[in-house]
Structure formats: C-alpha cells, structure tokens
Amino acid sequence: MILVLEPNVHPESVDYRMLTSQLERLSNISYRVHREVGSEVTLTEIYLIGNTAALTVEQMQVLPCVTKVVRVSEPYRVLGRHKQGDDRASSFEYNGVRFGQDNLNVFAGLCAVDSRESVEAMMKALRDNGQVCTRMGAYKPRTSPYAFQGFGAECLPYVFELAGKYGIRVISMEVTHESHVDEIRRALEATGNATGVMLQIGTRNTQNFELLKQVGRQQQFPVLIKRGFGITLDESLNAAEYLATEGNRKIVFCLRGMHTNMGDPHRNLVDFAHVPVVKRLTRMPVAVDPSHSVGLRARAPDGLLDILHVAAQGVIAGANMVLVDFHPEPAKALVDGPQALLVSELPHLLADIAIAREAYEKRARLAREQPSAR
Ligand code: PEP
Ligand code: MN
C-alpha cells in the first residue's frame, strides 16, 4: 500500500510525526519513506510493507498528511500502474526536457565517441535540426576484450563542452560501473554543467543488481534502462524496479530487440509490440532503439531503410523516445558503423518519425472516441 502525502510535508512537522507514530503502532507493518526533492515541490510517498491486506483504504486516508492511498496490485510496487486510484505522474522533467508517457523525444547521436570532430559534426546537425537531446557512448561494453572499449573519462570534457556550445540539454550515456557516474558528475561540473546526462544501463547490465542499486541511489541523473536481450519482460521490469526502490524515479525503459537468430537477418528480433504493454504495466516513458534492433543499413524496395521502418513501428505504437545511431563517416566508426545513419539523413529520420507520431496521436484520439473506451 502506498500513502501519497501532501506536497512539501516537512519531516519535523507535528502532523508528519503524528502520522509516523500511528504507522509505528500498526502490527506486522513496516514502512519506507520516499522523498523526491524537486525545484518547486517536495513529494513524499510512504510504502507500507507487510500485512497490508488487513488495512482499509478508508482507514489510511484519514491519517494526517495523507492525500491519497494506492493499493498495490502489480509486482512493480514503485513503478507499477496500480489498479485502484493510481494517478501518480507518468512523466518527469530533467534539465528543461520533459519525459512522459504522452510525448516523444528523439536521441540521435554517436554509438561511441571516437573523435572531437565527429562529436562536433553530430551536435551541429542536431542543433540545425532543432534537437536538444543526443546519445554519446564513452564507456562501451564490448563482446571482445580486444575491441575498442570507448574513450571513457578522457572524452567527457569535449563532449560536454560541445553539447553546451550547440544547446544540447540531455545526453544519453551508458555507464558500466558506478565509478563512471562520479566521472560524469565531475566532468559536468568542470564545464559549469553545460549540459545534462541520462545514465544508460545497457542490455548486458540489465540484471547487474549492484550497478542498478548504485545508479538508483543517486537522484541527480535520470536513467535509461535497456531491456535485457535474453530475459523476459517481467525480469527487465523488475530490474527497473531495483532503480526505483533505491530512490530514483526518473526512469525511461528502452526496448532494443531480443537476442535470437529468429530475427535474422536483423541483429535482434524487434520487440516493439511491447511498447503499449510497458506503458500499461508501469508509469515509465518507453524508448525504442531501432539501431541496435536492426543492426544494419538494409533498404526495402519502397526506399525506406529497415531502421526507419522499425523506428516508425515503435512510434506508431506510442513510444516516447527513439534512440538512433548516427555517424558522419560510418565506414570509419569504431563501434557499430554498419547500423549508423549518415548525419545528412537526420532530417529524413525526423520527418519520418513526425509522420508516425501524428498517426499515433490520431489513432489514440480515435480510440478515445469509441463508446467502448468509456
Ligand atoms: C548502446 O546503446 O550503445 C548499446 C550498447 O546498446 P545495448 O545495450 O542495447 O546493446
Ligand atoms: Mn552500439
């Protein structure tokens, strides 16, 4: 059971103390407090654990400071969309960009940072096309230990400086170890926080529970968690719950295809049919990564690249974010060149995504107008 408290409740206030002393008197119930400090309001939720079946919503509703009581009906206690009375937010804002289940952000960028020149070419194209988000890999988990592992902390100063120069507000960047979070924090501070970072948990680390706990314990950076490529959706949603239960609620869930040769000739089997499923089960915005799903620049007879087709499939199903690999010279890219779009293809991708988004919005409107939807 979740008790949602009035905004800005002070932990030293008389009412709050009355509330906690009453909770302490409940038998076989323990509680955990989650406090989210925003720029304007502080939100507090209290999670009751134990024999909550013995409690009624009405009984908890009248306790001091409580504005809403949500009975947990999903295994994803924090992130789940519970059946009764759960109208908690399904969006968040970070560095001036809104991430929600009702909007769409495109993160086009480099799979891996390989030179200052390619970062600048990418950032400039993004600015020229009205974009404020990107992806940039500094820490790359690679199948072979002999493959390029990313420039790590060394490239962060120029990546962040150039992001500031071109008005990029959020960079999705994978971390594979908790120390990377500190490196990112320090490098950002050194540029006067010229930009923002969304920490990415890659598909190979979806069940790296210690990493999830560490990343979940900080609330400075939002997190993009990729679905594990060989585990069930439920297992991946529980992984996201690890982040949330440690305190970080600014989480985007990313579908990126499943590892099986049933998807051949694509690199992975596209799983974007799960976009509406994740939105139904949880309050997380859902991203799709057509580049790592498809993994190659094949073109259909209609002239569209498979990557564009698949991106559109995610967007027309209501995806809230699209993560796409680009490179100024894909043949020279150190990671995933075969799936990179050319920087000159950015306007086409954005226009194609806009068509799919408009179609999705029309579909959602039509569905809401149906008598059966009421
Ligand atoms: C990536 O986005 O750079 C990446 C490595 O993706 P994934 O974890 O989905 O393989
Ligand atoms: Mn990649």
Task: Explain the overall architecture.
It is a single chain. With 374 residues, the protein is an alpha/beta fold. The protein has 2 domains: 70 residues, Alpha-Beta Plaits, CATH 3.30.70; 275 residues, TIM Barrel, CATH 3.20.20. It is 32% helix and 20% strand. It is built from 11 helices and 15 strands. Strands 7, 8, 9, 10, 11, 12, 13, 14 and 15 form a 9-stranded parallel sheet that branches. A 4-stranded antiparallel sheet has the order 2-3-1-4. Strands 5-6 form a two-stranded antiparallel sheet. The chain is globular and about 65 Å long. 43% of the residues are buried. The model has no long low-confidence stretch (mean pLDDT 96). The chain binds phosphoenolpyruvate and manganese (II) ion. The site of manganese (II) ion has 4 residues, from loops.
Annotate the secondary structure layout.
Elements: E1 2-5, H1 14-24, E2 29-37, E3 42-50, H2 57-61, E4 66-70, E5 91-94, E6 97-100, E7 105-110, H3 116-128, E8 133-135, H4 156-165, E9 170-174, H5 178-190, E10 196-201, H6 209-217, E11 223-226, H7 233-245, E12 251-255, H8 275-281, E13 286-288, H9 290-294, H10 306-316, E14 321-327, E15 341-342, H11 346-369
Parallel strand pairs: 7-14, 8-9, 9-10, 10-11, 11-12, 12-13, 13-14, 14-15
Antiparallel strand pairs: 1-3, 1-4, 2-3, 5-6
The structure holds phosphoenolpyruvate (PEP) and manganese (II) ion.
Manganese (II) ion binds next to loops.
